[in-house]
Amino acid sequence: MGDSGTMVRTGVVSAKNGKMVRCIFPDMDNMTSDWLYVLQTSDDEFVPDVNDRVIVLYPFGFNTDGYVLGVIP
Fold first, then answer.
1. What CATH architecture does domain 7-71 belong to?
2. If exposure means fewest CB atoms within 10 Å of the residue's CB, which of 17, 43, 47, 62 is most exposed?
């Protein structure tokens, strides 16, 4: 897996801070992300809870800023 190109990963929220979260990626030896913004709609104030499974988009590769797209039910 390279560091370029769009990447979509699944992770588990490990911490919350306002509208940002950190995620652990179990399939990557529990690597922890930096703080990630959560995708919001104009009237949405939802932020996933700790231990929620989420989908994370890294639009320019894994070593760049990423965004949480939503919770996996």
1. Beta Barrel (2.40)
2. 43
33: Cβ contacts below 8 Å, ≥ 6 apart: 11, 22, 23, 24, 25, 56, 66
What is the average per-residue pLDDT within 7-33? 94
pLDDT in tens, 24-68: 999 889 999 999 999 987 767 789 999 999 999 998 776 678 999
pLDDT of residue 1: 44
Using alpha carbons, select from 53, 33, 17, 60 the residue that is nearest to residue 69.
Answer: 53
